[in-house]
Amino acid sequence: MSSSQQDDCACRKPRKSVVQICNANRVLRTRIPIKFLNDSDTPLDKSNSVELIGRSWAADCTAFCIPELDIGLDAGYVVHGKRLSNYFISHTHTDHCHFLTHIKSRSKPPKIYLPAPSVDGATRFIQVAQQLTSDLTQQQYDEIPWDKDHEFIGVTAGQHMVVDSKRGIVCDVVSMDHGVPCVGYCFAQRKQSLKAEFRGLPGREIGALRKQGVQVTQEEILPLFAFLGDTTAEGVFGDSSAEIRRKVLACPTVIMECSFLTDDNRMQAAKSKHVLWSDLKPHIESHPNATFVLMHFSHRYTRDEVHEFFQAPENYLPNVVPWIADQNLAVQGTSVEADPLYCEEVWSHY
């Protein structure tokens, strides 16, 4: 090797490990603080938590599910073998929706919620994928009486939906600040609870009051979690987003993106309408009782770099769960005293 070639090699930056990047994007799981009540008003899980399974890395894929609630969140990948009844798509950038073709099912057609302006495009995407699979022209496709295998439901900001009437799961749709129509979803449980003045009375007396026409119960809304699509911090927590901020911060768990970690990427974050850590951090610090699951990190960072960033004293916050596989990032959840939160690596069936 010539001296000039040696000098050239010495000046090159070491290549980031491809293995690290791939490992950072496998399917992970953890338990998040959610107090979901059964019909008997007892928690679904004694730890007041549910399992969150998912995979997320910017421009690659984002998809999560909570099997206990029969809910999927975005469809950039298939992260669980169970067919879910409800999927909530934040927006139609392909890393969030390109596995729509794999979640439809003739045996159990799911309801797929997504921004209303994107329904037509998503419908054509499903159709074209089927044409490619079956080698059909448009005319041939149109002539086949296809069995129903999904239902697209367009949503708009401000909409309130009943997701599961039997278990009282409801959802509020909030607007996100991104380059395409994008929304977030705030989930809650609607329950009928006994009014305070009747608590402690024997069941026989309560039954007698009911027969007399006395309203002994009242509706109670228990916030569960928020899942926010791609956005800016200003779009969620800014002065013009007061109602969005109120709904999001009412939830004990907030799942949201944090694409950029350092201020040298501020212009890129603004241009692409993604979250920058320094813009988000003050809002997390001021709400210590909420757990923030942060995902969708830029590919400019490796898993180790994300790990080191959130472990640094100036960035470490006890209510932050970075969506990377590393048990050294164990975080004591504010609502899960017996079970620290961490992301455990699992194998997807895909």
Major sheet attributes: 8 strands, mixed
What shape does the CA trace take? globular
Number of structural domains: 1
Number of helices: 12
Radius of gyration: 23 Å
Residues in helices, as a percent range: 25-40%
What series of H and E elements makes up the topology? HHEEEEEHHEHHEEEEHEHHEHHEHEE
Tell me what portion of residues adopts beta-strand conformation: 25-35%
Tell me the structural class: alpha/beta
Strand order of the largest sheet: 7-6-5-4-3-2-1-15
CATH superfamily, called what?
A: Ribonuclease Z/Hydroxyacylglutathione hydrolase-like
CATH architectural name: 4-Layer Sandwich
- Which parts are unreliable, with pLDDT below 50 for 5 consecutive residues or more? 8-25, 327-341
Distance between the termini: 45 Å
Number of distinct beta strands: 15
Instruction: Report the CATH topology name.
Output: Metallo-beta-lactamase, Chain A
How confident is the prediction overall: mean pLDDT? 86
CATH class: Alpha Beta
Describe the structure.
The protein is an alpha/beta fold and about 350 residues long. It is built from twelve helices and 15 strands. It has helices at about 5-10, 20-25, 95, 100-105, 120-135, 140-145, 205-210, 235, 240-250, 265-270, 275-285, 305-310, and strands spanning about 30-35, 50-55, 60-65, 70-75, 85-90, 110-115, 150-155, 160-165, 170-175, 185-195, 215-230, 255, 290-295, 320, 345. The longest helix is centred in the middle third of the chain and has 16 residues, at about 120-135. About 40% of the residues are buried.
